[in-house]
Amino acid sequence: xxxxxxxxxxxxxxxxxxxxxxxxxxxxxxxxxxxxxxxxxxxxxxxxxxxxxxxxxxxxxxxxxxxxxxxxxxxxxxxxxxxxxxxxxxxxxxxxxxxxxxxxxxxxxxxxxxxxxxxxxxxxxxxxxxxxxxxxxxxxxxxxxxxxxxxxxxxxxxx
Amino acid sequence: xxxxxxxxxxxxxxxxxxxxxxxxxxxxxxxxxxxxxxxxxxxxxxxxxxxxxxxxxxxxxxxxxxxxxxxxxxxxxxxxxxxxxxxxxxxxxxxxxxxxxxxxxxxxxxxxxxxxxxxxxxxxxxxxxxxxxxxxxxxxxxxxxxxxxxxxxxxxxxxxxxxxxxxxxxxxxxxxxxxxxxxxxxxxxxxxxxxxxxxxxxxxxxxxxxxxxxxxxxxxxxxxxxxxxxxxxxxxxxxxxxxxxxxxxxxxxxxxxxxxxxxxxxxxxxxxxxxxxxxxxxxxxxxxxxxxxxxxxxxxxxxxxxxxxxxxxxxxxxxxxxxxxxxxxxxxxxxxxxxxxxxxxxxxxxxxxxxxxxxxxxxxxxxxxxxxxxxxxxxxxxxxxxxxxxxxxxxxxxxxxxxxxxxxxxxxxxxxxxxxxxxxxxxxxxxxxxxxxxxxxxxxxxxxxxxxxxxxxxxxxxxxxxxxxxxxxxxxxxxxxxxxxxxxxxxxxxxxxxxxxxxxxxxxxxxxxxxxxxxxxxxxxxxxxxxxxxxxxxxxxxxxxxxxxxxxxxxxxxxxxxxxxxxxxxxxxxxxxxxxxxxxxxxxxxxxxxxxx
Lengths: 159, 597
What we know:
Structural class of chain A: alpha+beta
Oligomer: heterodimer
Shape of chain B: globular
Largest sheet of chain B: 5 strands, mixed
Helix content of chain B: 25-40%
Number of domains of chain A: 2
Number of domains of chain B: 5
Number of strands of chain A: 4
Largest sheet of chain A: 4 strands, mixed
Number of helices of chain B: 24
CATH architecture of the largest domain in chain B: 3-Layer(aba) Sandwich
Distance between the termini of chain A: 32 Å
CATH class of the largest domain in chain B: Alpha Beta
Number of strands of chain B: 19
Distance between the termini of chain B: 62 Å
CATH topology of the largest domain in chain B: Rossmann fold
Radius of gyration of chain B: 27 Å
Number of helices of chain A: 7
Order of helices and strands of chain A: HHHHEHHEEEH
CATH class of the largest domain in chain A: Alpha Beta
Strand order of the largest sheet of chain B: 12-11-15-13-14
Radius of gyration of chain A: 18 Å
CATH topology of the largest domain in chain A: Glutaredoxin
CATH superfamily of the largest domain in chain A: Glutaredoxin
Largest interface: A-B, 38 and 54 residues
């Protein structure tokens, strides 16, 4: 992975986050949540800074980041598409919806389009099972998505 | 709530939120203000009504009118017609699917008739962001009673007597758990609320937190009083932003009212609550894993004993309870243990909330007394199977549970009966499946989930589940053998016997229960290479019926792999070896000549 240089400003912001949790190592997960909010993802450089600030090893930080599916070490697209693969969505045809997204965006699950516009991910149950199958684009929830409706959703963000 | 003549309740749960209920609420509020009705009509956003299938829901009190699938554009009509002229907007009323009649009063809806709402008592009735509304419904009364009139042991005794058992899946008696923690000697103890609802297809905890957060806060404070703790922690999924916000608001309001903080009600009891966020790991629902995660580590489970009640968060005694369990506690204190124990079956008292989803007409959140049968839940409350299809199975307990079939329909639902029938209560997800669902694929779906969520600590779970998945995949690809089914069984038993935590000990359940209940389907897959539901693509065969084929060449022209041979006006044939089963020929044929074998 190419090295990223964190700007001094961003670096200060990150340190301030650590400080707001008293640089307490038990607060690592809370710190990572906020850091991901700032950077959009958690590259190695960010993890190194956090490790230093909380006085723990980088390996420990990496261990936690890689354990939880919520944390990502790769940048997401401008419009992250998440398809719910909870059981309710599964039995109502979420797999076909995924296939359709793959076909239209020409990427696999876990990838980002070359222009950085879309990324594709699966998630487990947002709890809106009444609307199954459910697709999230950013924070927006699309319910009862049919394979035919996928094109329209993508178009909403490409116009 | 009494000073208004009418209340317009708009569902603000995640499901309805996604269908523009927020804009609807705004429109209703603006129009009510425009018409000068502010003093008579109150418009509020409530928690989930449970009837997610037909959201967004608007309910008018006092006449219990229940409007379904209301759009923001309907706001004006509801106000002008119903609120001002007193005429119900008939086109928005719920229609009974059986007799096609409009239901004017929600009490008469099949969906609600059989329900008994204890844990969900306030969901869909109060504004969760307003503590006064909770208080007006006897809120925080139980806490006052405990702090001022009872000793901690008396409170524990009430809960023991009520027979309340943990609703997160384990079913351990709540009172006993509190008693053990109270007897552990330590300078500091913790109360933890487990709101890490990772079971796919389950959303009861989310709905309680969104619809009635104060009931959980009150119960945590009562638990704190029982065990002698001053600090509560809620471990909540980061995927539930709305629930997090509502809980934050509720905690802030409780502090302002002196219901959390130092010297509550002037007693020497102090208690406060903090939030800890999950980060998407199913295993963190297991209490030891949850505690490690709260400490900022990888959420890997550890050996029990010591149980968290003795050595938990930061090595201190910790009482961990699930959201729904907690929501029951204040009512039990207020109404008495005898009342609670009178509901339910011999060993499972009270009610259980289920998230009903899948191929069912009324998807939603329901609460029924323990001992209600599956038939009542699926047909009377759930309104039967979608599109008039045939019921096949209902999956309970999520990735740890199993499938129940037609022969179990009249079994009363409680902890013990579900276990005896090869499934489990779990947290309360209930996914209904119909004849179009392939049970081998369903087992594969759950194993796919477990493989991804296994933390990797124990080899049987880490490697064994992966192997289970591969064998199931092989079967769905049409490459399975009779021996593979035996292998599945053996391996499942080993994984169950040798895994450390609940995840590995239960992960083979979906495999075992589908083998037990749908043996024929497994055999069909491995010997006849057939999938009766047509879900296993590799086992499908597209064939052309010579009698119907007119030789129009539409199928051959549209076949992406040129697997169809035949002259113009001659009969066409599909080369099964080359066919990739895309279904293009079936779609293009206008003469019904292509069919699936």
